Amino acid sequence: MAVTPTDLADPVLDDRVPHLAQVVPSLLATLGVPTFVDTLDLPEATRGCVLLVDGLGWDLLDEYAADAPVLSALHRRPLKVGYPSTTAAGLSAIGTGVPAGEHGMVGYSFEVPGAGVLNALTWCAQPGGEDLRGAAPPERVQPLPTTFSRAEAAGLAVSVVSAARFADTPLTRAVLRGGRYVGVHALGDLAAGALAALAEPNSFCWAYHGDLDMLGHLHGPGSPAWRLQLRQVDRLVESLVDGLPAGALLAVVADHGMVALDESVVDIDDTPELIAGVRALAGEVRARHVYPEKGAAADVLATWRAVLGDRAWVLPREEAIAAGWFGPRVADHVRPRIGEIVAAARGRFGVLRGLAEPVESSLVGQHGSLTRAEQLVPLALASA
């Protein structure tokens, strides 16, 4: 039976809905790369491009379809992005072809044993600490071969087309290594770079646009600024569709959706009981990892459940793993990165850290949790 978004309960853990991690392996399988399997039944192609629009949720695209007529008109179906629904995990799913329990990038920030709490975007100690590239080398934190390196080894011309400032960042080294990095600066050269990559025979490219997510964080998803940026994204998609060479397949996806917080938020820094017995905190506003002091886990779990109530799912690590939050398998080296207690926000709730994380806590739009607004993203296809 085909699954539509209205079939999906909250939280979104429905195994009938394909995972973002299946997209690149499926496309590479259609391009003839051995060891990959097309689990999405994609159209045949001889070259392909995956465009990831950061922050474009399925529900948001539906609600604001008039601002994206080209994208909305493409053949599309929903994907789930897995937990946590955040950029580091989503890019890792694209770059490895597996969910968070296997690639190990289990949050915006998470504890790496022996190194401390790592912010996966800045690769610094969270909050606001030292550079951790020495204590936690990117290739050691995420050691799996990437989809890009495997495609390149199979003979494809592989390109990663993304912002020039990300060219040699630790996150790029961890999950996007392999192929040729094409650094761009705006929508125009993003489109031009992707089309130039597709002009090569037997080519695969991955392209990334991040500004929709940024404006959603700053102004809220669905705000005037966000909607005007969505119109620019639609022009980007139109440029790619119009320029596709013969035999090319374009897949437009996202790494998560987004919600605007309401007044029900809790600030950990103003709620001392949430810190009692806790040696470290990680994650983000809607997806927290809690690392208790030795022997304090039961008390910390009870306190977090009592304070957050029905505004969040609060589970011990093993229950979250058994429920499939991090995918069907969690590797042994990944398990200790997950908080002994995991808290995922419902509705428009969030767990702030106003003093420790002032920038993150000030944002209007947030994501990370298991709600359909964050979990469901489009897989929109165009071919030539």
From TrEMBL:
<dbReference type="Pfam" id="PF01663">
    <property type="entry name" value="Phosphodiest"/>
</dbReference>
<dbReference type="GO" id="GO:0016787">
    <property type="term" value="F:hydrolase activity"/>
</dbReference>
<protein>
    <submittedName>
        <fullName>Type I phosphodiesterase / nucleotide pyrophosphatase</fullName>
    </submittedName>
</protein>
<dbReference type="InterPro" id="IPR002591">
    <property type="entry name" value="Phosphodiest/P_Trfase"/>
</dbReference>
<dbReference type="InterPro" id="IPR017850">
    <property type="entry name" value="Alkaline_phosphatase_core_sf"/>
</dbReference>
